[in-house]
Amino acid sequence: MDEQEEIKITQTYSEAEKHKVFEKEFMPYIDSMYNFAFRLTNDEDDANDLVQDTYLKAFRFINSFAEGTNAKAWLFRILKNSFINDFRKKSKEPSKVDYQDVETTYNSEEDAETTQTVDLRADTVQDLIGDEIANALNALPVDFRTVIILCDVEGFTYEEMAKILDIPIGTVRSRLHRARMLLKEKLKSYAKSLGYDVNADSMAE
Predict the structure, then answer these.
(1) Cβ–Cβ under 8 Å, residues 46 and 91
(2) Which residues of 41-73 are buried (b: 16+ CB within 10 A; e: fewer)?
(3) In the predicted model, is pLDDT for residue 12 greater than 80?
(4) How far is Cα 163 from Cα 172, in angstroms, rounded to an integer?
(5) Are 142 and 93 in contact, with CB atoms under 8 Å apart?
(6) Is 66 left (phi over 0), alpha (psi -120 to 50) or beta?
(7) What is the model's pTM?
(8) I need a labelling partner for 85 at 20 to 30 A (CA). Which of 10, 78, 92, 190 fits?
(9) At CB < 8 A and 24+ separation, what contacts does 102-105 make?
(10) Cα-based distances in Å from 185 to 57, 156, 182
(11) Tell me: the pLDDT tens digits for 76-123?
(12) The pLDDT of residue 106
């Protein structure tokens, strides 16, 4: 989360209220936060450090959080920006992916306007579980991996994802569509080995 944005005060909590809000609003999401952090970093220690850093920032800037609003999206945005600003620099990930470069390869103006996409929760690949899916997901560029995690794993809406990622909703849709296509391609050989017809309608774009 941008430092200047974080320090905008929307509430004034007493010390006791800060701890109450922290426990009630933020702590229930710690498992989801760790799962997201681990998917971003692919390292247990880095994930733990990222979650700790996120919660420290959440408490530090708790006065900018309005109790009863979307705490999960607020926390995920802090975590995402902490990863970009700090942890990505020292992680084992490749250099930051340039969305423009990637989307030039996989996208077109017509595709960017698509309203049809493959939802992993409804696609044949929903039956593929275990290490193959985890490995395929982890093999995606981190920025594409992020949109799949936010939507298909954590269940955020397009609107919430747009706020977390600081991008327009139309861009969210386009990137999610491309990310799902990339993931499906990586899973095709595994699906085929299990007897699925990868050319069937259920696996078609």
Answers:
(1) yes
(2) bebeebbebbbebbbebbeebbbbbeeeebbbb
(3) yes
(4) 10
(5) yes
(6) beta
(7) 0.70
(8) 10
(9) 102/141, 102/143, 102/144, 102/178, 103/174, 103/175, 103/178
(10) 38, 24, 5
(11) 999 999 998 876 666 555 544 444 444 443 443 334 333 333 444 434
(12) 40
Cα(48)–Cα(82) distance, rounded to whole angstroms? 13
Task: Work out the percent of the chain whose per-residue pLDDT is above 70.
Answer: 68
How much is the mean pLDDT over the chain?
Answer: 77
Q: Which amino acid is at 71?
A: A
Question: Quick one: tokens of 5?
Answer: 């944005």
62: pLDDT strictly greater than 90: yes
Q: How many CA atoms lie within 13 A of 87 on its CB side?
A: 25
Cα angle 15, 21, 23; round to 5: 105
Question: What is the pLDDT confidence band of residue 26, given thresholds at 50, 70 and 90?
Answer: very high
Contact 76/36 with Cβ under 8 angstroms? yes
Sign of CA dihedral 20, 26, 27, 28: positive
Q: Are 159 and 96 in contact (CB under 8 A)?
A: no
Crossing angle (nearest 10°) for helices 71-82 and 158-165: 40
3-class SS string, 1-24: CCHHHHCCCCCCCCHHHHHHHHHH
